[in-house]
Amino acid sequence: MSTWTSKLYRFGGVWGLCAVLAGCVTTTMGQAAPRSVRVADGSLVLTAPNGFCVDQKASQGDGSFVLFGNCAALSANPSLRQPGQPVVLTAAVSAPAPVPVAKALPQMKEFFQSEAGRAALSRSGKAASVTVLGMRTEDDLLLVHLRDTAAASGPRVAAEYWRAFTGIEGRILSLSVLPLRDRPVSDANQRALILAFVRAIRAAN
Q: How many CB atoms are closer than 10 A to CB 122?
């Protein structure tokens, strides 16, 4: 395994563990949940489309993994704007990447088609739980459509969802849209939302 794919595997594996935790959307009673958060020693800003706020209890304190949920629910304030889709958004930021992500997209695409790559995408760390349904590149962005049958703790999330990988300030940024299993979201809406997620973070930086 090359240095690049080794780093990507460890990054993906950490995200897979965080994805299991992503089902635990908690509320912050009486407090307004923030719309954005600074990570990577303050050098990056992570934010999400309108209606989504940072779930501070479900995110990692070092900022390497951030979960975004419904602003109204997190702030216990139904008057706040709510997302148009019943999903959870996650963002994970890696350590500095060994090469520019834009140049590594073909290698990343090949990696995620391998057993090691599917294991890195899996919530359980097991390649057998993941089926890659499709991949496409758009500029310096890799979109991965997948099905993960591994169980997640907390509220049940759908097996089928979208992830995006791109570069930001020399780091790998991994984003996901996780619909709830009992509240389906169309494939087109998931893809549109993850692209809006990417645009929001790029605009903030």
A: 21
Spacing of C-alpha 127 from chain mean position: 19
Residue 54 and residue 69: Cα distance in Å, rounded?
A: 6
SS3 annotation, 90-121: EEEEEEECCCCHHHHHHHHHHHHCCHHHHHHH
CB of 122 within 8 A of CB of 19? Answer: no
Q: pTM for this structure? A: 0.82
Please state the separation of Cα 181 from the chain's center in Å.
17
Q: What is the pLDDT of residue 2?
A: 53
Tokens of 19: 């994805």
Q: What is the pLDDT of residue 19?
A: 41
Backbone angles phi, psi at 76, to 5 degrees: 55, 40
Q: Which residues of the chain have pLDDT under 50?
A: 4-5, 13-29
Name the strand (E) or helix (H) holding 178: strand 171-179
CA 17/CA 70 separation, integer angstroms: 22
Mapped onto helix, strand or coil, the DSSP state of residue 87 is: strand
SS3 for 168?
strand
What is the CB neighbour count within 10 angstroms for residue 138?
12
d(CA 172, CA 105): 11
User: Domains in the chain and their CATH numbers?
Assistant: 3-204 (3.40.1000.10)
Distance CA 3, CA 60 (A): 26
Task: State the Cα–Cα distance between residues 51 and 30, nearest whole angstrom.
Answer: 18
